[in-house]
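Predict the assembly for these two chains.
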Amino acid sequence: GAVVSQHPSWVICKSGTSVKIECRSLDFQATTMFWYRQFPKQSLMLMATSNEGSKATYEQGVEKDKFLINHASLTLSTLTVTSAHPEDSSFYICSARNSGANVLTFGAGSRLTVL
Amino acid sequence: GIQVEQSPPDLILQEGANSTLRCNFSDSVNNLQWFHQNPWGQLINLFYIPSGTKQNGRLSATTVATERYSLLYISSSQTTDSGVYFCAVSGYGGSQGNLIFGKGTKLSVKP
Protein backbone atom coordinates (compact mmCIF):
# COMPACT_ATOMS: atom_id res chain seq x y z
CA GLY A 1 0.00 0.00 0.00
CA ALA A 2 0.88 3.67 -0.18
CA VAL A 3 3.56 4.76 2.27
CA VAL A 4 4.45 8.29 3.32
CA SER A 5 7.68 8.90 5.17
CA GLN A 6 8.45 11.92 7.33
CA HIS A 7 11.81 13.04 8.65
CA PRO A 8 12.84 13.90 11.27
CA SER A 9 10.37 12.27 13.64
CA TRP A 10 11.31 14.70 16.36
CA VAL A 11 13.50 17.77 16.58
CA ILE A 12 14.52 20.24 19.27
CA CYS A 13 15.83 23.61 18.25
CA LYS A 14 16.68 26.98 19.73
CA SER A 15 14.42 29.96 19.30
CA GLY A 16 15.27 31.92 16.17
CA THR A 17 16.63 29.01 14.17
CA SER A 18 15.00 27.32 11.18
CA VAL A 19 13.92 23.70 10.91
CA LYS A 20 13.19 21.68 7.78
CA ILE A 21 10.83 18.71 7.74
CA GLU A 22 10.70 16.33 4.80
CA CYS A 23 7.71 14.39 3.53
CA ARG A 24 8.24 11.66 0.95
CA SER A 25 5.84 9.39 -0.87
CA LEU A 26 7.80 6.15 -1.06
CA ASP A 27 5.95 4.05 -3.59
CA PHE A 28 3.80 6.48 -5.50
CA GLN A 29 3.90 9.91 -7.03
CA ALA A 30 1.98 12.71 -5.40
CA THR A 31 1.29 15.92 -7.25
CA THR A 32 -0.36 17.24 -4.10
CA MET A 33 0.66 16.87 -0.49
CA PHE A 34 -0.93 18.38 2.59
CA TRP A 35 0.65 19.73 5.76
CA TYR A 36 -1.25 19.59 9.04
CA ARG A 37 -0.43 20.83 12.53
CA GLN A 38 -1.66 19.30 15.74
CA PHE A 39 -1.33 20.95 19.14
CA PRO A 40 -1.46 18.75 22.26
CA LYS A 41 -4.84 17.15 22.87
CA GLN A 42 -6.31 18.88 19.83
CA SER A 43 -7.35 17.86 16.37
CA LEU A 44 -5.41 18.23 13.15
CA MET A 45 -5.64 21.53 11.35
CA LEU A 46 -4.69 21.92 7.71
CA MET A 47 -1.89 24.43 7.23
CA ALA A 48 -1.26 24.32 3.52
CA THR A 49 -1.58 22.38 0.32
CA SER A 50 1.69 21.66 -1.41
CA ASN A 51 1.56 21.53 -5.21
CA GLU A 52 4.37 20.01 -7.24
CA GLY A 53 6.03 22.64 -9.39
CA SER A 54 3.98 25.57 -8.16
CA LYS A 55 3.37 27.67 -5.09
CA ALA A 56 1.71 26.21 -2.04
CA THR A 57 -1.77 27.24 -1.03
CA TYR A 58 -1.98 28.35 2.60
CA GLU A 59 -4.98 28.24 4.87
CA GLN A 60 -6.26 31.41 6.44
CA GLY A 61 -4.14 32.52 9.36
CA VAL A 62 -1.04 30.56 8.35
CA GLU A 63 1.96 32.77 7.60
CA LYS A 64 3.48 31.74 4.30
CA ASP A 65 6.75 33.53 5.05
CA LYS A 66 7.13 31.64 8.28
CA PHE A 67 6.16 28.20 7.01
CA LEU A 68 7.98 27.76 3.71
CA ILE A 69 6.81 24.88 1.58
CA ASN A 70 8.69 23.46 -1.37
CA HIS A 71 7.39 20.64 -3.55
CA ALA A 72 10.20 20.21 -6.02
CA SER A 73 9.46 16.67 -7.13
CA LEU A 74 6.57 14.25 -7.34
CA THR A 75 7.76 12.40 -4.26
CA LEU A 76 9.08 15.11 -1.94
CA SER A 77 7.61 18.09 -0.15
CA THR A 78 9.44 20.06 2.53
CA LEU A 79 8.17 22.34 5.26
CA THR A 80 10.63 24.84 6.72
CA VAL A 81 9.71 26.60 9.95
CA THR A 82 11.70 29.81 9.80
CA SER A 83 12.81 31.79 12.84
CA ALA A 84 11.08 29.31 15.09
CA HIS A 85 9.57 30.42 18.39
CA PRO A 86 8.28 28.36 21.32
CA GLU A 87 4.70 28.84 20.15
CA ASP A 88 5.62 26.96 16.96
CA SER A 89 6.22 23.85 19.03
CA SER A 90 3.74 21.32 17.69
CA PHE A 91 3.25 18.04 15.91
CA TYR A 92 3.48 18.48 12.13
CA ILE A 93 2.00 15.79 9.91
CA CYS A 94 2.04 15.50 6.15
CA SER A 95 -0.22 13.49 3.90
CA ALA A 96 -0.37 12.55 0.27
CA ARG A 97 -2.86 11.08 -2.10
CA ASN A 98 -2.00 8.56 -4.73
CA SER A 99 -3.20 9.76 -8.12
CA GLY A 100 -6.58 8.33 -8.99
CA ALA A 101 -7.34 7.42 -5.40
CA ASN A 102 -9.30 9.35 -2.83
CA VAL A 103 -7.63 7.87 0.23
CA LEU A 104 -5.14 10.12 1.99
CA THR A 105 -2.12 8.46 3.55
CA PHE A 106 -0.38 10.18 6.45
CA GLY A 107 3.22 10.28 7.54
CA ALA A 108 4.22 9.40 11.09
CA GLY A 109 4.54 13.07 12.00
CA SER A 110 7.36 15.31 13.22
CA ARG A 111 7.35 16.64 16.75
CA LEU A 112 8.99 20.07 16.96
CA THR A 113 10.06 21.57 20.26
CA VAL A 114 11.43 25.10 20.22
CA LEU A 115 13.36 26.12 23.32
CA GLY B 1 -16.77 25.03 5.28
CA ILE B 2 -17.88 21.61 6.38
CA GLN B 3 -18.29 21.07 10.11
CA VAL B 4 -17.41 17.70 11.60
CA GLU B 5 -18.66 16.70 15.03
CA GLN B 6 -17.63 13.53 16.82
CA SER B 7 -19.18 11.96 19.86
CA PRO B 8 -18.54 11.06 22.55
CA PRO B 9 -15.39 13.08 23.20
CA ASP B 10 -14.17 10.54 25.73
CA LEU B 11 -14.99 6.89 26.24
CA ILE B 12 -13.77 4.44 28.84
CA LEU B 13 -14.40 0.75 28.28
CA GLN B 14 -13.64 -2.47 30.01
CA GLU B 15 -11.72 -4.92 27.85
CA GLY B 16 -14.12 -7.04 25.85
CA ALA B 17 -16.86 -4.44 25.63
CA ASN B 18 -18.32 -3.08 22.41
CA SER B 19 -18.61 0.57 21.45
CA THR B 20 -20.00 2.89 18.80
CA LEU B 21 -18.39 6.15 17.80
CA ARG B 22 -20.34 8.72 15.84
CA CYS B 23 -19.37 11.35 13.27
CA ASN B 24 -21.81 13.97 12.00
CA PHE B 25 -20.96 16.25 9.10
CA SER B 26 -22.73 19.32 7.84
CA ASP B 27 -22.59 18.92 4.05
CA SER B 28 -22.22 16.36 1.28
CA VAL B 29 -18.83 14.69 1.19
CA ASN B 30 -16.82 12.88 -1.43
CA ASN B 31 -14.37 11.41 1.06
CA LEU B 32 -14.73 10.17 4.60
CA GLN B 33 -11.98 8.40 6.47
CA TRP B 34 -11.73 7.01 9.99
CA PHE B 35 -8.32 7.09 11.63
CA HIS B 36 -6.81 5.75 14.81
CA GLN B 37 -4.02 7.89 16.25
CA ASN B 38 -1.71 5.83 18.40
CA PRO B 39 0.18 7.19 21.44
CA TRP B 40 3.15 8.07 19.21
CA GLY B 41 1.00 10.23 16.96
CA GLN B 42 0.85 7.98 13.93
CA LEU B 43 -2.45 8.17 12.10
CA ILE B 44 -3.59 4.76 10.97
CA ASN B 45 -6.21 4.75 8.26
CA LEU B 46 -9.02 2.43 9.36
CA PHE B 47 -11.62 2.96 6.67
CA TYR B 48 -12.22 4.97 3.55
CA ILE B 49 -16.00 5.07 3.63
CA PRO B 50 -17.87 7.97 1.99
CA SER B 51 -20.93 5.71 1.90
CA GLY B 52 -21.99 2.19 2.72
CA THR B 53 -20.67 -0.35 5.18
CA LYS B 54 -17.27 -1.97 5.56
CA GLN B 55 -15.80 -4.44 8.03
CA ASN B 56 -12.26 -5.24 8.97
CA GLY B 57 -11.90 -7.76 11.76
CA ARG B 58 -13.35 -6.38 14.97
CA LEU B 59 -13.95 -2.99 13.39
CA SER B 60 -16.73 -1.97 11.10
CA ALA B 61 -18.03 1.34 9.80
CA THR B 62 -21.22 2.60 8.25
CA THR B 63 -21.79 5.90 6.52
CA VAL B 64 -25.29 7.12 5.71
CA ALA B 65 -24.42 9.92 3.31
CA THR B 66 -28.00 11.12 2.86
CA GLU B 67 -28.29 11.68 6.62
CA ARG B 68 -24.73 12.98 6.96
CA TYR B 69 -23.35 10.71 9.60
CA SER B 70 -20.95 7.84 9.99
CA LEU B 71 -20.54 5.25 12.73
CA LEU B 72 -17.48 3.29 13.76
CA TYR B 73 -18.11 0.06 15.66
CA ILE B 74 -15.50 -1.59 17.81
CA SER B 75 -16.34 -5.03 19.08
CA SER B 76 -14.59 -7.04 21.80
CA SER B 77 -12.34 -4.10 22.59
CA GLN B 78 -8.70 -4.67 23.54
CA THR B 79 -6.28 -2.45 25.42
CA THR B 80 -4.42 -1.89 22.17
CA ASP B 81 -7.53 -0.16 20.81
CA SER B 82 -6.84 2.75 23.14
CA GLY B 83 -6.04 6.05 21.49
CA VAL B 84 -7.86 8.80 19.66
CA TYR B 85 -10.23 8.05 16.82
CA PHE B 86 -10.70 10.73 14.21
CA CYS B 87 -13.28 11.12 11.52
CA ALA B 88 -12.21 13.30 8.59
CA VAL B 89 -14.10 14.41 5.52
CA SER B 90 -13.66 16.39 2.35
CA GLY B 91 -16.44 18.09 0.47
CA TYR B 92 -17.13 18.56 -3.18
CA GLY B 93 -16.42 22.27 -3.01
CA GLY B 94 -12.99 22.06 -1.47
CA SER B 95 -9.59 20.93 -2.67
CA GLN B 96 -9.81 17.27 -3.51
CA GLY B 97 -8.11 15.26 -0.82
CA ASN B 98 -8.10 18.08 1.71
CA LEU B 99 -9.49 16.46 4.84
CA ILE B 100 -11.30 18.31 7.60
CA PHE B 101 -10.94 16.56 10.93
CA GLY B 102 -13.34 16.24 13.81
CA LYS B 103 -12.06 16.74 17.34
CA GLY B 104 -11.77 13.04 17.90
CA THR B 105 -12.97 10.49 20.43
CA LYS B 106 -10.43 9.49 23.04
CA LEU B 107 -10.88 5.81 23.84
CA SER B 108 -9.38 4.17 26.90
CA VAL B 109 -9.74 0.41 27.23
CA LYS B 110 -9.04 -0.90 30.72
CA PRO B 111 -7.78 -4.46 31.32
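The first strand of chain B starts at residue 4 and ends at 7. The CA atoms of residues 53 and 60 of chain B lie 7 Å apart.
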